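Human: I would love a firmer grasp of how sequence relates to backbone shape in proteins. Take your time, and here it is.
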Amino acid sequence: MHTPLAPLLLVPPADMANKRFLTAACIYLILSFFQSSCDAASYNVVRFGARSNGRTDSSQAFQNAWKAACAASGSSNMVYIPRGTFMTKPVVFSGPCRSRILFQNDGTIVAPPNYQDMGNSGFWILFTKLSRLTVQGGTIDARGTQFWACRRTGSRCPAGVRSITFMWSNNVLVRGVTSLYSQTIHVAVSRCTNIVFDRMRIVAPSRSPNTDGIIVQSSTGVTIKNSLIKTGDDCIAIGPGSKNVWIQKIACGPGHGISIGSLGNSLNEAGVQNVTVTDSIFTKTQNGVRIKSWARDSKSYATNVEFRNIIMRAVDNPIFIDQTYCPSNRCPRETSGVQVSNVRYSNIKGTSTTVEAVKFECSASNPCRGIRMRNIRITTPNRPTISTCEHVAGSSSGVIIPKSFTSIRYRQTIVMNFLCFLLIVQSFG
């Protein structure tokens, strides 16, 4: 298509006829380009029986449109949800497909008004066993309010569903999607490779239970960027078996912050490695950047982690390593076997609502190693700010605030120092 372009550009610009010809040729080339990009067949869910009134169950129409697009040949095909409100029960979009698939949503997908109609599968919208998938645009609203109320009253409630789940898939782009009021987790990623989330908007009330924004586990090459996440649980949680995770330009809050873990719930659990969180803002969250592990024996680990260029605004626990997690006293008199190592914190500033702006509660049996701090400036309004460090070794540089501490313990030895981050008794190691 593009071979005629170079000769056309050699036409003398002074020749008006040639200029008009050049303009027409350029328009033709542009139109041809767009025509070729639009050659992908479009499978509109309305043509398969979906109704945009927000009341009619369109689940089967969605799945039929998907099956047709997935089975069709060609370089790419599109499943299209036009403007309007479409109600669906749990739907599964599975592969492998014969071509690239664009799942284009220009409307709103809503859950049934009765949360019991979601069943017990744990999924609402599930994409599985796919490659070269793009999910783009639109809003999904799980209408989680009544489900949360059921959970709060202690009545017999279903387990709840995750709004969007990606499993056993690779080379996936999710862009410009809004997820509202999920019953539980908004977006879950499991056993995927090379998946990008861009310009996501995830919203649930601060008191909604277990409404994590994005959870990643057993996946490699995950990027989450340019997104707003407001939830009742972690904005982003990185679970066991995840590696090469890049998180950038996230506005988190309310919620529980960005967490690695919890890790070490089982003995042979996979670890987490190569995680970066950068250029992000936390506002009125329970935690800022956190690493959390169970206080029980495990071969899991968290290593090569970096938190940098971060702003904390009225965060309860801005910097937190918690290796004492043990709900309902399920691990009495145990310590965490998870090895936390090579964690870097740099250029982090802002305010803490508690006096303990930095807490490193590491394992007595597997102390944190290689903790590096550079240019940390976190204060508590109208009160002195302190750091708590237990069983930690590392180094610090640049300006470090808070400078005070409660105690530094390593191998059951209390080391008193003027600066928690110089804890790092250099003779150790």
Remarks:
- Confidence is low (pLDDT under 50) at residues 1-38, 404-419, 421-429.
